[in-house]
Design a protein that fits this description.
Number of strands: 10
CATH superfamily: Metal-dependent hydrolases
Bound molecules: zinc ion
Oligomer: single chain
Largest sheet: 8 strands, parallel
Strand content: 15-25%
Number of helices: 11
Shape: globular
CATH architecture: Alpha-Beta Barrel
Helix content: 25-40%
Distance between the termini: 32 Å
Length: 259
């Protein structure tokens, strides 16, 4: 019961469904998971790929997806928002802008998934510097196109070579934090690392302390669920850490519920 109380005001703000090419959860099953965990609701944030070479390009069909989201909400009684996780590349920022105007998601997560033509999952395996990655993240945060900046230290899921990044890349992080504060973009605390065996969320306290000390107050919280049982996973751990740091969780924007 204590768990239910803890999460009863919290939304999982990062949830994928079969409307993402790499996810297996149906919207109804995602809603049931959220209800079972005692969450206030969730925001569907399926992938929107803006690169024609990407496997997921063209996979998201907004009319089909939003119909399924609505049906899932009706069937389960769960409050559900419509958002997107949008792959951001500095060289195709105009394409991203156009997609946002066409699809009007009420919640927008900006995510750097590529460096040049390489998917970050591959790129981080051999990268010897994070500078190209943080340059893209800075561009994403500065664009002002998004409510939320996705999984800032995603590289920790791929490799342990950059575990001390908050010290080694401090000037880059300071610039990113300044851009976040200037544009009103909030970082997300992504808990998917916890179900992959890591002990900290992405990002964890080291980055979030810098964010707080520069004036940051709020973050979004999401599980990045792709499969049944993953919605809401790790949110209690994330919430506790966020509160211990003196930060708080931002709820989804109201406009994402009116789709
Ligand atoms: Zn992502
Ligand atoms: Zn995601």
């Amino acid at each position: 019961m204590a768990e239910e109380k803890t999460l009863s005001l919290i939304y999982d703000c990062h949830v994928h469904t079969i409307h993402s090419c790499d996810a297996e959860n149906t919207p109804v099953s995602a809603c049931r998971d959220a209800r079972d965990r005692g969450l206030a609701g969730l925001v569907f944030t399926d992938h929107l790929e803006t690169r024609p070479s990407d496997l997921c390009y063209g996979h998201f069909k907004p009319a089909d997806a939003t119909r399924d989201y609505r049906l899932a909400s009706e069937e389960t009684g769960l409050r559900v928002g419509y958002g997107l996780e949008i792959t951001y590349c500095s060289e195709s920022a105009n394409e991203v802008k156009k997609s946002i105007a066409d699809l009007s998601p009420g919640f927008r997560i900006g995510a750097v998934h590529y460096i040049g033509n390489d998917l970050i999952d591959e790129w981080f395996k051999t990268a010897d510097s994070l500078e190209p990655y943080f340059a893209e993240v800075l561009s994403c945060a500065s664009s002002g196109l998004f409510h939320c900046l996705a999984h800032l230290d995603y590289f920790n899921k791929i490799t342990d070579r950059f575990r001390d990044y908050s010290a080694g890349y401090r000037p880059f992080l300071d610039e990113i934090i300044e851009a976040l504060l200037d544009t009103g973009t909030l970082p997300e605390v992504n808990t998917s690392s916890l179900r992959r065996g890591l002990r900290v969320t992405m990002p964890g306290p080291d980055f979030l302390e810098l964010f707080r000390d520069s004036g940051g107050r709020k973050v979004y919280l999401g599980s990045d669920a792709h499969r049944p049982g993953e919605v809401g996973h790790g949110l209690e751990t994330g919430l506790e850490m966020i509160r211990d740091l003196g930060l708080s969780v931002q709820g989804p924007p109201e406009e994402c519920f009116g789709f």
